[in-house]
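Forwarding these from the shared drive since the link keeps breaking.
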Amino acid sequence: MGRSSRVPALRQGVRILRLLARHGGPMPAAAVARELELPRSSIYHLLSELETDGLVVHLPEERRYGLGLGAFELGSAYTRQAPLARLARPLLHDLVDDVGHGAHLAVLHGREVVYLLEERAPGSPSLVTGVGVRLPAHLTASGRAILAGLDAAQVRALFPDASAFADRHGVGPRSLSALRIVLSEVRQLGHATESGEVTPGFASVAVAARDHAGYPIAGIAVTFAEDAVDLRVRPALAGRIVRTASDLSRRLGGGRP
């Protein structure tokens, strides 16, 4: 499909989402077609595509369409991320100054984490955790810190079967039962770790920050070469990250991680 055929469809899809948002409730497809002055066949095709992406939900008993969870995720992600990065930036800067290793801030998006901030230490190598990068949540320390704060039903919904477990280097949990063991350890320790599961030769320690409702809104992690930080020192490093996550939680109106 060429650009000329994709762009009009995208625009019409955006028009549908805006209409459903303005209407304040689910609408019949015929009403959507009438409001937008488009053929019903085109509307049904567009609604089907939007439904596949979770942006629209079909209510068969009512024969209506409404905004889906995907639309909510986009809106709530904006309201979370806009102030979140600004509030976290100076805290990450101080954390990196103290520990001498790079740090980053990530949020959960589906089964992935999205990196919002990266603060590199002087002389530290470039990593894959740049701003905007997405990685499998179950393999990253940041993702594990956030997932450990969700209830069992939420984790099960995100990882319903083996196909949900993306692989990078052949290590890390590959089933829900294995992931539950990892998350249980995170809760016991009070921080999450990963070693070589994102990038061979590098390890990370992370703690989740919580918002005013107690939701684990973001993960703060420090990443370092595996041989640069002795295993006996890592609990102390985790304690410093806990302080940063606690400071961010307080800024967000939440409590201690």
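-- next protein --
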Amino acid sequence: MRDVHRLEPTAASPGRDSVFAAWERFVQGEDHVRGVRPEVAISWHRCREQYRVDPHLSEAPVATARIDHTLEHDVVFTELGGLAVSVAHEVAGLSGIVTVTDATGRILAAWGDQATLGRAAEANLAPWSCWSECAAGTNGMGTALEAHGPVLIRGAEHWCQAFHNWVCAGIAVRDVVTRDPIAVLNISCWRTQLPEAAGGWLFNAVATTQGTLKRRARDSGAELVAAFTQARGRSGAALAAVDTSGKVVIADERASVLMGVPAYTPAVDPAVRWKSGLPDLIGAARYASKVAAHNPDWVGSTQIFTHLAEEPTPISIRPVFSAGHLAGNLISLGATEGAQLPQQAGPAPVPPRGQPRRLVAVREDRMVLLRLAEVYFAESDGNDVWLSTEQGRLHAACQGLDKLDGELADAGFLRVHRRYLVNLSHVREIERGAKGELVLVMGNQTTDMVPVSRRNAPAVRRALGI
């Protein structure tokens, strides 16, 4: 297994000339990027096709004036600032600088070699400039916001030619509940290679902050269990407590049946919380969390489709706070108290008919653009996702099956197991085991068999009409 604390060794990297030649071809419209690391090729694809960043941009744009940070995020920025100063001492001899950005890619502060800071300012590599991929293309800060773990971008791997003399390494601090990025710690050097140890510096620096977030998340889980216990004595409705991402922390017996999760089994640790597999619930919980963060007295209601139910079930959503921090929400199923949630609070709407939708995969040094109909199923292996397709087994560009599940929930794909997402149109047969378990036989040439977990079985039966 690769050591995630280390950046890829410089000696294993392609030469500047070959990467620059691939960059020139890709900028001109070619998709073949031989000699370029897959994570860089994928980032280039986002910059060209999705974000449409001008590769001849000479400096990063100024960040927008709007700031929407929570108190918890401010604590993260403060911790990273102190850690960045210590890292800056490590890279001082390399004429390097260290930056901290927020989740939008806005640089909050920079430290390090004064001469390099002055040169960086010429490209707006300085506070209050935006270095997200959608603003400045492939770079250490912006690409770290899109990835998990340390990211190294060298020379011509930057999407914008004006930044080709820089070497950057970044890592994102992520919310341990939602997995959304909060901040990025980044090292940048001018025409100087970073040592392999730079990945360890970054990883160790953010590990301290991630530990603080994990402890806070466990405290929030305990607060949700306490709020659930107290509310059960006042409510006759089915009741559950969910965190800010929509994962279930605890549910009573009736709610457990509707959500497909164990009853009265607290999941205080965010790493073991229950996924209901209900897109409507997840969308409503995330919307409620955004509203409640600005209006603590808010209570909302909507309708969601649940397991084993043909008709939508009304729910009421009430936020739970701990010391001014939003811990999650209490969900009362069968209740209609509170303001009605807007329709767009649920899953993403289906795109207009005829609009092409593609998945990006990687085969060796080439990107493969797949129509959804070409994909049989997706399988997770940690953060990696593998696609079983008409062109064989391919490594997906996206990180994490949860993200892919959210993107394809409205496109005929269904999560049937914590490790599998299936294109329902390619299910050829259904096998039933001796104990009632289901296995899906796919219609590809190898007739792969995909297991269905017990909690997902009702949704599979409903989707396939069995």
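The first strand starts at residue 96 and ends at 102. Residues 217-345 form a domain with the Beta-Lactamase fold (CATH 3.30.450.20).

- D.
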